[in-house]
Amino acid sequence: MSEHLDLADYRRRVASMYATLRADPRPTMALVAFRATKDRLFATHPQSPIPAGERAAFRGLSYWRHVPSLRFSVPLEPDPTTSPHDLPRSSGGSYAFSRIGWVTFSVGGTECRLAVYWLEGYGGGIFIPFRDATGGSTSYGGGRYVWDSVKGADLGSEDDRLVIDFNYAYHPSCVYDPHWSCPLALQENWLTIPIEAGERLSPEYLADHDRETT
Questions:
Q1: Residue 211: which pLDDT band, with cuts at 50, 70 and 90?
Q2: What is the 3-state secondary structure (H, E, C) of 75-97?
Q3: What does the pLDDT read at residue 210?
Q4: Nearest by Cα to 66 from 28, 37, 111, 30
Q5: Is 183 left (phi over 0), alpha (psi -120 to 50) or beta?
Q6: Cβ–Cβ under 8 Å, residues 35 and 63
Q7: Closest CA to 140 of 113, 166, 173
């Protein structure tokens, strides 16, 4: 198969993974099944973010334990300015987005707010990156993602409310291979508290990169 068809197939499989997840009413079992499916995809697919030479030894991503309280259904608060934003890329340059609104929620009594972006490209799509207090240590300093509807990687919406579940927060592909160029979280989406849920960096990754995760 060509590289382009491989990539199209990979994105189709990611979208299918999330569609199955949204249809599963079992919070804990759904998370277990989702992570197992994603680990298999990373281990076997030709467009996996894991470099080809490392896939045979790949035994799965590292995750924090399920934290049910880190799932939220929150209203999208529209941003009347619809501000244009250029999100920096891991390889340099930027991607064009607009900030279309905000979501607000509380973690352990701390109010948190994240900007919600819209990709200014063909078809568009909602995108929510974030960095938290684990960034640069046990998670990537450039941030993680909780929504990327371009790839179908989201938990969906309920009327005017977005489902934000940090148990599904994930690293951009550039964390595993600099071949990929990924948008990074702007400072307006840096949370001051740790979000110890979703994907984390493995001890092996930290050792290999000498904790250079920023």
A1: very low
A2: ECEECCCCCEEEEEECCCCEEEE
A3: 54
A4: 28
A5: beta
A6: yes
A7: 173
